[in-house]
Structure formats: structure tokens, C-alpha cells
Design the sequence.
């Protein structure tokens, strides 16, 4: 299930960042994380902790509850990743 959640979260935060026309660096500054970490979240190289999900959502000017609801909705799109190598970053 982890690759599915990771892919859905990556998709949600990338879409939101692009909607706001922000760079990864700007999201990092707003959320208190490094630019590298934001990039790894977007590339599905890391799974965000609950704290990170809340802080990144806030940095993206989005209610964390809405972010999690969006992630849950997108999980169906990435169901095909279930059971795949969690280190793989293939969409």
C-alpha cells in the first residue's frame, strides 16, 4: 500500500504547488523542510510522516484534511503500484 499512498501524495502536492506557481524551494521555506525533501516527496522517494504531510499542506496553503481527502481519492488511480518495489519511482 505504501507505493500507492506515496504516489497519491506526490501527485496532490505537485499539482497544488504548480497551481500556486511555487518552486520546491518556496514550498520548503513555507513548510520548514528542505528543498531536497520536497523534491523527494514529489518524486516518491520518501513517504511523508503525518507531521510532514501537515506542514507541507500548510505550506501549500491547503487544509491538511483536504490534502488527505485528495490523497485518498487519488489512491485508486495508483492502485496498480500495489505490490511493486517501494524503491521504484515509475509512474
Sequence:
Amino acid at each position: 500500500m505504501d507505493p500507492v499512498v506515496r504516489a497519491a501524495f506526490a501527485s496532490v502536492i505537485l499539482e497544488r504547488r504548480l497551481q500556486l506557481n511555487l518552486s520546491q524551494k518556496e514550498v520548503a521555506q513555507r513548510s520548514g523542510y528542505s528543498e531536497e525533501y520536497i523534491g523527494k516527496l514529489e518524486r516518491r522517494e520518501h513517504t511523508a510522516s503525518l507531521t510532514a504531510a501537515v506542514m507541507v499542506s500548510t505550506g501549500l496553503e491547503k487544509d491538511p484534511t483536504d490534502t488527505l481527502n485528495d490523497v485518498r481519492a487519488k489512491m485508486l488511480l495508483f492502485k496498480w503500484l500495489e505490490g511493486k518495489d517501494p524503491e521504484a519511482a515509475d509512474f
User: Anything to note?
Assistant: The longest helix spans residues 2-19. The chain has one domain: 2-78.
